[in-house]
Amino acid sequence: MVFKNLKLSDVGNVPVHLNWEKYFGEVKQQAYNLIAKEKFCLFLGGDHSVSIPLEMGFAQTHAREKVGIIHFDAHSDIANEHDGHHWSHACTQRRALDLPNVEPAGLTMVGIRAYMEDELEFLAKYPAIRVISAREIYCQGLTHTYAAISERYQDYRSIYFSIDIDVLDPAFAPGTGTPEAGGLSTRELMELVKEIITLLPVEAVDIVEVSPPLDSANVTCWAALKVIYEIFGAIASRKA
Ligand SMILES: [Mn+2]
C-alpha cells in the first residue's frame, strides 16, 4: 500500500465568517500554526481568495527565507483589485507579491489562458514572473513544462503550490466558477503534480474552486480527488 508510511489527519474546517478580515485572519493563523509544525499541508477550497491568507501564513512561517509560489490556474489572478476589493480571487498572487519574502522571480504561473487588461500590463512590467501558458504546455509538452518550472527553484527550500481546478479544461472540470476552454487534461495535471511534489521542496498545497453545485456527474470532484491521491503518492515516494 503506497500510503502505508504516511500518517494523515483531517484537522477540519475553518468556519466561514462573512467578515473577511476576521475570516482571513483566522485562516492565516491556523495555516501558520499547522505549517510551523513542519507537516506537509493540503488545504481544500473554496474560492481562490482563500489562498491569500494561506500564502500569508506560509510566508510568515518561513520569514527568514524567500519562498516560491507555483500557481496552476486558467487565470493569472494578478489584478490589484477586482469587484471593488483587494482580497478577491482575481488578486491572489498580487497579494502574494506584497509579502516581504515573495519575489517576482519566485512566482510561476502554469496553464494560464485568460487575462484582464491590467494583469497584462502588470506582467509586462514584471517579466521575472514566469507565465507558462496553456498554449506553451500544449505546444512544448510536459517535459519542457516541468523543466521550465524546476529550473526556477534550484535555490529555494520552501514552495507553496496553489492549484485552481480551472487549470483543467472544462471537459475535465466543469464544476467551477470561471471555466475557460483550452486547458489541461486531468492526466497532464496528474503528471505535473507528481513531478513537482516528488522533486521540488513543496511544503503546502491548496486545491481550490471545486464547486459541487456547478458540477456534472461529480466529474470535477473525482478529478480533484485523483489529484489529491497523486499528491499523497508523491509525498509517500519522497519518504520511501
Ligand atoms: Mn482561476
Q: What fraction strand?
A: 5-15%
First CA to last CA: what distance? 12 Å
What are the secondary-structure elements, in order, as H or E?
HEHEHEHEHEHEH
Strand order of the largest sheet: 1-6-5-2-3-4
CATH fold name = Arginase, Chain A
Q: How many domains in all?
A: 1
CATH architecture: 3-Layer(aba) Sandwich
The unique ligands bound to this protein are:
manganese (II) ion
Ranges with pLDDT <50 over ≥5 residues? none
How many strands, which pairing sense, and closed or not: the largest β-sheet? 6 strands, parallel
> Quick one: CATH class?
Alpha Beta
Task: Give me the Rg, rounded.
Answer: 17 Å
According to DSSP, the number of beta strands is: 6
Which descriptor suits the 3D outline? globular
Name given to the CATH homologous superfamily: Ureohydrolase domain
Number of helices: 7
Tell me, rounded to a whole number, the average pLDDT.
96
Structural class assignment: alpha/beta
Could you estimate the helical fraction of the residues in percent?
A: 25-40%
Blueprint of the fold:
Layout: H1 20-36, E1 41-44, H2 51-61, E2 68-72, H3 92-96, E3 107-112, H4 117-125, E4 130-133, H5 134-150, E5 159-164, H6 186-199, E6 202-208, H7 219-239
Parallel strand pairs: 1-6, 2-3, 2-5, 3-4, 5-6
Manganese (II) ion (MN) is lined by residues 48, 73-75, 164, 166, 178.
